[in-house]
Amino acid sequence: MTESVDDTALRAWAYLARVAEPPCAAIESLCDELGPAEAAAAIRARSVPPGHAGVLEATAARADSDRAAADLEVAERIGARLVTRDDPEWPAWALMTLGQADTAVRGGPPLALWVRGPGRLDEMATNGVALIGSRAASGYGEQVTSTLASGLALENWTVTSGAAYGIDGVAHRAALAAGGPTMAVLACGIDRDYPAGHARLIAEIGEHGLVVSEYPPGTTAAKHRFLTRNRLVAAMSDAVVVVEAGRRSGAANTAAWARKLGRPLGAVPGPVTSATSVGCHRMISDDLAVLVTDTRSVIALARPDGAGDIGRGRGRETDDLSDDQIRVHDAIPARGAVTIEEIAFSAGLDVSVVRSALAVMDVGGHVVNVNGAWRLS
Amino acid sequence: MTESVDDTALRAWAYLARVAEPPCAAIESLCDELGPAEAAAAIRARSVPPGHAGVLEATAARADSDRAAADLEVAERIGARLVTRDDPEWPAWALMTLGQADTAVRGGPPLALWVRGPGRLDEMATNGVALIGSRAASGYGEQVTSTLASGLALENWTVTSGAAYGIDGVAHRAALAAGGPTMAVLACGIDRDYPAGHARLIAEIGEHGLVVSEYPPGTTAAKHRFLTRNRLVAAMSDAVVVVEAGRRSGAANTAAWARKLGRPLGAVPGPVTSATSVGCHRMISDDLAVLVTDTRSVIALARPDGAGDIGRGRGRETDDLSDDQIRVHDAIPARGAVTIEEIAFSAGLDVSVVRSALAVMDVGGHVVNVNGAWRLS
Lengths: 377, 377
Prior knowledge:
- Chains A, B: Residues 82-300 form the Smf/DprA SLOG domain.
- The structure is a homodimer of 377-residue chains.
- By secondary structure, chain A is α/β, with parallel strands linked by helices.
- The first copy, chain A, is 44% helix and 12% strand.
- Chain A has three domains: 1-66, no CATH class; 115-302, 3-Layer(aba) Sandwich (Rossmann fold), CATH 3.40.50; 323-376, Arc Repressor Mutant, subunit A.
- Chain A is built from 17 helices and eleven strands.
- The first copy, chain A, has a nine-stranded mixed beta sheet, with helices on both faces. Chain A has a two-stranded antiparallel sheet with strand order 10-11.
- In chain A, helix 12 links the parallel strand 7 (239-244) and strand 8.
- Chain A is elongated.
- The relative contact order of chain A is 0.09.
- Residues 307-316 of chain A have low confidence and may be disordered.
């Protein structure tokens, strides 16, 4: 049986994906220069072009062990596939920022991704929100996660997480229950179920959504792989929301990745008496995360230019307003309606001034009267 | 019996304090020019100097009714006193900002304050935190209020509030229970107990702390007086903390005053599922209030230059650090300890670089090793 060019390339990718612990900037760079087949051949032959010496070091331990064919067979058996940068569903856009210099430590883009499920990787990676948090979630955290995940899924946002116990699992489950897309990024091989207690959940995600891993089949979960995996969770999400995190939660690492990659970071507040909200509160008070409370605020975080229903400045431009009118405008909260007296109070203007300003602004479409109270239009 | 100069002045102040609904900028301005006795005489005679015509309008309804002596008698009977700007305990510093132009709408300084209790007004008005919030507080809100008020009182901070049901009452009670100073600012006469159900609490505050009102004896509470009173709560506090507030809580008005007067504003987060935390969450996410969780963060809010135990930059100066060392410094959170790997990750530096930076910084006293993890010193 002859092997097609595609098969050769795929086997080369599979070889490259295993020959060094991912991500490996040296292999990526070699690949960019030679293409996957020649890059694989060069590593096997221990002979790389000048300037790529780092590849030999990174691949010294595994260069002679070629499990590419076996990996692809395992993948086929479990219904998984290897998605490479040559594939149309490669999430190039989502991963782009990982290629930038300041993420070099443990932070390059993946060379390829093993995926399992009917979801299309590039689409799920650019229309999703990561809901993450403590494994030891509280009942409150689980409740909020479930509400957010359902809400997002019903709006057809992919709910992305790490399939762990606690917040992760609740997020995936609620998205599945709502019939929406969900994506689990694993820190182990695509054929492994980690944690074991979530085998059934991971199988369900693989049936209805997408299970993703940059680790070749058979790879066991390890601490450093969680940290590496976390960058993919952040990169392949439009926003990252920490629902619950203790003082030293692993979620802080994904949150740090979100900030590093320029992904909007949200955190859900909770009782100040709850240990599992301490991390969220700290992120908010340190101005690292935006406080989010519901599906709507999460979507506004993920699409700041979209819904536009959060924050000031929505609605009409204020360029054509007089000074008094601008003060009135600024005195009306972004959400909700207020009375003329409240506006006068906040704006420091006389009620009569406010009343005439509102009249003009009403005609101009800047404000709306709702049962005697006023809100921004 | 002859009347002393002081008595004459006091009666003039008492007259002026009642002759118009406070605050009254026109009377204040007349007083500044003529002094209280002559100002009172001018109003009685309906003859004021040029440029003070506004006084006649503001005092038209009450000029002929002189209850000054009676007011002072009532005050004496209930152990209250009238504190004027001639008195050493006048809180000039705290009230100064109320005299500024942009607070003119319902916002001038009080002409005088009726007070009852052993506390010294100027001291309590400059070493306190206002704890405010919903009348319909939740069990959670009451618990947090109690914890904060006790903590503040034990550190000898005055706990200031409005003696209302809910958060206000819990704040005063917890401060009293901790044996600390507490100040209640009323929206009715100093001889009135509003709300009636808090008569006993207000009496206790008057015995151990201070009850304050700008309204003459007998004045009943009214909606506009709550709004006017709120500016005093904000002005006479070093920081204002909203513990719980619903979507349209009255606490928002005091919070608006805090911002207007430049008082640091804090808000306590709570469950996103709780209606009484909605207002707090909104203030935080709209960047109007700082998220606070405990006594320490409230004190740091009130004395940003004091304790200095919140936020970065505490401890040693970083001027003498190298670039790598500064990156390491910045990668260590303000609170808590982190591992070398976490620092390397956050700083985007190699572990070896971090290790040698930490060694130098340890010697320099910038960092401390705690059981293998590192924190800022």
